[in-house]
Design a protein that fits this description.
By secondary structure, this protein is of the alpha+beta class. Helix content is 29%, strand content 19%. A hairpin with a 4-residue loop joins strand 6 and strand 7 (187-196). Mean pLDDT is 75; it is low at 1-7, 18-24, 324-362 and 371-394.
Length: 394
């Protein structure tokens, strides 16, 4: 428990150190980027807080690097751009801290026993090394340091340092060395990063946002104007109560005074038709505020429309009748120069013998609570529904 509490305090101090060390005016120096990378990688990969000062930087040849390596250090060979070779070395103190955290979940204060590194050690630190390298290059990608600091990853480990003179290029290398204190026990370890001074990578230049051209701005303005014009355009809808299909000779014989009789069920089967004959909605006929009106049906509750077949009753036949036209109920329409169009259907309406005068009101679509209903005058028998109509010619 004490270990966890101390680790938490160290983690907070490490966060404060990062906040204070960051330069808001530009990216960090490579030495600062390396120690920041170790802190972030240890926290994410090992759940371990570490503290460190900024890494020391120098240039050295492979022979000088070989002489300065700690005894029994873990040697990780790195591969980079264009198959370049680099090195990350961890001394026995750093290796012991990582292995203790991986195996026991805590870091002890005892000194590590000198021994040669093994493949088991490599399996325990490979992910940590890749995370350190990834965090190291991230803040340097847009700088010139990216030419030598970016693109490196773990490849393999060397059991002994002698092959380094062959593995590393015979040229000057940039060497970053950091001293790290691991966990609440503050176990000390060293990490040494060796990369070729002449890098083969390239900085990642930020892509500036494309500038808006005059043509693009004009096109955008035109698109907005077109959308406004289309949305504000008027659309005409026809409320179709029914349709009549006639031979051409009967159509030509229509005269003022002729009437079109519709079944009463046509009142509940009004269709709103757009240009081109497309039905956009179904409705029922009624009145509101003293005006003719239609109430649109819910599309999901749309029922099969009842029969709305109409028939023409000539003016002479109407003059001879003393009662309503048999088999029909609904509106009376006087035919004008061109007859209205009605949809053909079957006229099997049970409310057959009804005929309503033009002046009688339709049923209200939206009656108010408590509002008295207008008196319905009709020649229809009690209990029958009345339908209304309008005169279309004189």
């Amino acid at each position: 428990m004490a270990d966890a509490g101390t680790a938490s305090i160290l983690r907070r101090k490490a966060e404060q150190g990062r906040a204070g060390a960051g330069d808001p005016k530009g990216p960090p120096a490579p030495g600062r980027a390396l120690v920041d990378a170790f802190r972030r990688a240890a926290e994410e990969e090992l759940a371990l807080a570490v503290t460190t000062a900024e890494a020391r930087e120098q240039r050295a040849t492979p022979a000088e690097i070989l002489e300065g390596l700690p005894e029994h250090a873990f040697l990780a060979v790195l591969i980079g751009p264009e198959d370049g070779a680099g090195l990350l070395a961890l001394d026995p103190g750093a290796m012991a801290a990582v292995i203790e955290m991986r195996t026991m979940g805590r870091v002890s204060a005892r000194q590590p026993t000198p021994r040669r590194p093994t493949k088991t050690d490599a399996a325990m630190v490979a992910d940590l090394i890749d995370r350190v390298l990834s965090e190291f290059e991230a803040p340097l990608l847009e700088t010139e340091d990216a030419r030598w600091a970016a693109g490196w990853r773990y490849q393999l480990f060397l059991p002994e340092p002698r092959p380094l003179s062959v593995v590393l290029e015979d040229a000057k290398h940039r060497v970053l060395e950091a001293t790290i204190l691991f966990g609440a026990a503050a176990k000390e370890g060293r990490a040494i990063l060796v990369l070729p001074a002449t890098g083969r990578g390239r900085p990642v230049r930020p892509v500036p946002p494309p500038e808006e051209s005059v043509a693009a701005e004009t096109a955008a303005t035109w698109q907005v104007a077109l959308g406004d014009a289309v949305e504000s355009a008027e659309a005409t809808l026809d409320a179709v109560l029914g349709r009549v299909r006639l031979p051409l000779n009967e159509l030509a014989a229509l005269a003022p005074g002729d009437r079109l009789a519709l079944p009463i069920t046509a009142l509940g089967a009004v269709r709103l038709v757009a240009a081109g004959g497309t039905t956009v909605a179904e409705a029922r006929l009624g009145q509101t505020g003293g005006l003719r009106a239609v109430k649109i049906r819910d599309p999901e509750q749309r029922a099969r429309p009842p029969a709305t077949e109409g028939a023409v009753i000539g003016a002479e036949a109407l003059a001879r009748r003393t009662g309503p036209a048999p088999g029909w109920a609904g509106a009376e329409f006087a035919a004008a120069a061109a007859p209205p169009q009605f949809e053909v259907g079957e006229a099997g309406d049970p409310l057959a013998d009804l005929c309503v005068a033009e002046s009688e009101p339709l049923s209200r679509l939206d009656p108010q609570p408590g509002e008295p209903q207008p008196e319905q005058k009709s020649d229809a028998p009690p209990g029958a529904e009345a339908a209304a109509g309008g005169r279309v010619g004189g």
